[in-house]
Write a structure and sequence with these properties.
Layout: E1 18-19, E2 26-27, H1 30-50, H2 54-73, H3 75-78, H4 113-129, H5 134-141, H6 156-170, H7 178-193, H8 197-214, H9 218-234, H10 238-256, H11 261-276, H12 280-297, H13 303-318, H14 323-344, H15 349-367, H16 372-381
Antiparallel strand pairs: 1-2
Length: about 375
């Protein structure tokens, strides 16, 4: 989490807030500040100041912790490998080990989190120094979230480590600065990927509040609110999240129409929310409308199209009105599983989900008296016009 609570009593803090005059540690009031000073902060305060102040010091600590977790998690996969950036097994300065949390295979994609972070920092700094346009900045900024080799998103604990690296780099920027806001978003994404949902909610709520303070445009607010709604949903607050997802989807449709990536993503998130509350028919309706758009705009093998296709198949077998619905679900999953594995790599969480759903769909088909093998043969015999 970021520093949005009193350092003593954990009371949520308003903005602006009372801070230590030396190291900027935040407090809810003078009583807590005095208690903290007497309880040991006096000795630690100079060290925090030397570390860049409370926010910077905290971010640096959390980054080191996240890297250690990621290295340990990846240790089996990275044994005997070297970093593709610095070509060393251990980082020359931090002595950290290697990570890999993308779709790279074989000997590709192994790196130190610090090397990945330094690489992106250089790209972003070059963009700022040369006053390149927003599109150029976004393509460089995406390297915080996407592997430069396989071009797929980092996931799990590696995404979390890079989220903290990003926040550590830009936490000192002004609130209205693009990099600070984008870094907060990357941190929230990373915490969510690592299933630190409570911490992610803290970041998302702070981001929404910050965007309101600086008067952010409507499209930026919709993205931030969508991220917050996802966190609520992950924490089981699904009834609270559903109307937020619906409003965000409607907002994107109104602003951009349906052939825009954020609209497609918000449609997918709305469908996921409907799924979570067992509103399968409504989810199918959204997916039937937006899946062809996702495939056309983002590509057949985009993560969004693969997720939406998998969800549509799930809805078919969970509320199957006919045997044909079950057959379509099985056939869709059997096509989607190898594609998802090829595009995202076997370690990606979506691969496991789709494979499990395939087994459930097959079981549902057998329970209804359908024969999976005969379904395959029938589908293979169909002409393109029949399909």
């Amino acid at each position: 989490m970021i520093l949005t609570q009193c350092a003593v009593c954990a009371t949520p803090l308003p903005h602006p807030r009372l801070q230590c005059g030396i190291c900027k540690t935040p407090y809810c009031g003078r009583d807590c500040q005095k208690l903290h000073w007497k309880g040991g902060h006096r000795a630690l305060c100079p060290q925090i100041k030397r570390g860049g102040g409370a926010e910077q010091y905290h971010a640096t600590q959390k980054y080191a912790e996240a890297v250690a977790v990621a290295v340990m998690k990846c240790s089996e996969d990275t044994r005997g490998q070297t970093c593709y950036i610095c070509t060393e097994a251990l980082h020359w300065k931090t002595k950290e080990g290697l990570v890999r949390g993308c779709a790279c295979r074989g000997t590709a994609g192994f790196a130190h989190a610090s090397c990945l972070a330094e690489q992106v920092k250089i790209l972003v700094a070059e963009c700022e120094e040369n006053n390149l346009d927003a599109q150029a900045m976004q393509s460089r900024w995406d390297r915080w979230d996407y592997c430069g080799l396989c071009e797929q998103r980092y996931h799990g604990v590696v995404a979390c480590a890079l989220g903290w690296a990003c926040w550590k780099t830009y936490v000192g920027r002004p609130e209205a600065d693009f990099a600070r806001c984008a870094a907060m978003n990357s941190l929230g994404d990373g915490l969510t990927d690592a299933e630190h949902y409570e911490d992610s909610v803290t970041v998302r709520e702070a981001q929404v509040s910050m965007l309101r303070r600086v008067g952010a445009p409507a499209d930026q607010m919709l993205v931030a609110q969508g991220n917050l709604a996802q966190c609520y949903s992950r924490l089981g607050r699904k009834e609270e999240a559903l109307p937020m997802f619906e409003a965000i989807y409607s907002g994107h449709l109104e602003l951009f129409g349906n052939e825009e990536k954020n609209t497609i993503t918000s449609a997918m998130n709305y469908a996921i929310s409907l799924f979570g509350l067992l509103h399968f028919d409504e989810a199918k309706s959204v997916l039937r409308e937006m899946l062809p758009v996702a495939r056309r705009v983002l590509g057949e093998n985009s993560v969004e199209a693969l997720k939406m296709r998998s969800m549509h198949a799930s809805a078919l077998y969970k509320v199957a009105d006919t045997l044909d619905d079950l057959r379509e679900a099985v056939n869709t999953f059997e096509e989607t599983v190898p594609t998802t594995r090829r595009v995202l790599g076997g370690a990606h969480p979506l691969v496991r989900v789709v494979e499990e759903d395939l087994q459930k769909a097959r079981a549902a088909l057998r329970a209804r008296g359908g024969d999976v093998e005969s379904v395959r043969q029938a589908m293979a015999a169909m002409t393109p016009g029949d399909a």
